[in-house]
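User: Study the chain.
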Amino acid sequence: MAESSRTGSPVAHGFPHLGTVRAAVTALYRRLGGAGVRAYAPSLPASEVVFTDAEELYAGAQRIARATVLHLRLPDARVVVGFRRSEHAATVELTSGPEYFVELNERFRSHRRDVGAALAHEVTHVLLHRLGLGFADERENEILTDTVAVYLGAGWLLLDAFREDALTRQKLGYLTPEEFGYVLAKRSLAFGEDPSPWFTSPQAYQAYTEGRSRALRDLRVPPLRAAGAMGRMRYARDRHREVAAPGAPYAFEGGEAGTRVLFDCPVCHQRLRVPVRGPVRARCGVCGTEWECDT
């Protein structure tokens, strides 16, 4: 797991990996199905990952690892946690199981509030290994891991580990803070959760609000009925020409059955194809969500 710290490079912001993040959400839904993803409710409670200085180091780390394993529905996986000097925040040894060995950077001995965040990423690696789900590119695979950790309810800790002020600059994982906020907001919208009370970092909460604004935009693009007036006007013009303007979140294709509009499902980003014939209800075949459209 990558990290930025006081002596590291500045924390990147914005949404540079949004395409890979959305592909990761699609891959997760394709692998587990809508019902399988929804089985990961509710999120991992903050009460189960609180780690105080009064608790014995290894016992506390093992307790949090066990809570994360159970939340991610890996009841037969045993994660053994150790600490050592490393340039990385954490690493995991992926084998056939049933034991997996996670090594945390020794700085977590004194920065215990972030142990849960590091373990969320590494235990998700175990889950993806068990599921046979991964991307070929190594960095994209790490983005997949961050995305799945957050979307399945354990990775909100990764966002809460983000801190940036005059003295401290820390971020765990490969997503930007705003991208973590985006994925968390996608989960909160799909699961009906409000994660705002969980944050201990003000900077993390701000990143969540920015990510949520971006996630809400996914729900307001044509041909969805919830699209704004300007978006519907642009869509009507493009529909008349049957050619989408550059950068439009939709495209048109013809065929024997008539013209269809192509756009991403706002939940799982699977590409949907809907006939251009006025008000219709579109159902995503991957996540099962239904959408009111005006095509």
